[in-house]
Structure formats: C-alpha cells, structure tokens
Amino acid sequence: MVRGVTTQQTQAENGISHVDSRGRVGREAVGLLLLSLGVLGVLLALATWHWLAALIAAHVGLIACGVIARRTSSSRFKQDLGTIVACSSCGGLIPVLFGVAPTLGWLAVSLLAVAAGLWLSSSRVDEEA
C-alpha cells in the first residue's frame, strides 16, 4: 500500500513540476516587471526634485549591478561584463559631476578612491591568484 502511494505522489509531483515551472517563470516575469517599474518610478520622482539626483541614482544603480555581477558570477565573461558596466558608469558620472559642480566631481573621485581602498584592503583572498 505504501508503494502505491509513493507512485501516485511521484506521478503527481511530475505533473506539478511542469505546471510549477511555468508558474515560476511567470512569477519571475511579473517580479522583474514590478522591479523595473519601481526603479523607473524612483528615478522619475528624483527627476522631479532635480535631474542630477536621478542621474546619480541611475549611475549608482548601474555601478551596484556591475559589482554584484562581478562578485556573484562564476563565468569569466559575466565577471568582465560586470566590471565593464561598473567602470563605464563611473566614467560617465564623474565628468557630469565635474561639469555641474567641481566640488561634486571631487567628492565622487574621493569616494571612488575610498571604495578602491576598501576593496584592496579586504581580507577576501581570490582562489584564482
């Protein structure tokens, strides 16, 4: 009797897993849509306050995405892509800040130096080295 129950459960699990995978993809798609709309809403709200605030938030978000991709990816291509995104975003933000107010530009350069110092002095040792 136990054998029949486990067979029925296995068949039910196989049937549910196919439906569940479609539901999981749909849930992820809706989640990504909500995330995109939320980020767009934040950027638009910041833009109504000041265009520079929205620009800084967008660049900081790109830098964070690049750093996260670099740290969490096992693929060398994804790590390189994360580095390119983060560096190009920094390279785009700093000249804009210097153009708006040189003090903001120097603040960004100083914060970049602090971040690089923290990264270099971290106790995490790479296995690749």
Quick overview:
88% of the residues lie in helices and 0% in strands.
Report on the structure:
This protein is mostly helical and 129 residues long. It has 4 helices and no strands. α1 runs antiparallel to α2, α2 (51-72) runs antiparallel to α3 and α3 packs antiparallel against α4 (102-120). The longest helix has 48 residues, at 2-49.
Q: What is the β-strand count?
A: 0
User: Can you count the helices?
Assistant: 4
Dominant shape: flat
Instruction: Give the topology string: H per helix, E per strand.
Output: HHHH
Given as residue ranges, the uncertain stretches (5+ residues, pLDDT < 50) are: none
Q: Considering DSSP H and I runs of 4 or more, what fraction of the residues is helical?
A: over 70%
How would you sum up the major sheet? none
Rg (CA only): 23 Å
Strand content: under 5%
Structural class: mainly alpha
Mean pLDDT comes to: 77
Distance between the termini: 57 Å
Q: What labels describe this entry?
A:
mainly alpha; flat; 129 residues; 88% helix
Topology:
Blueprint: H1 2-49, H2 51-72, H3 76-100, H4 102-120
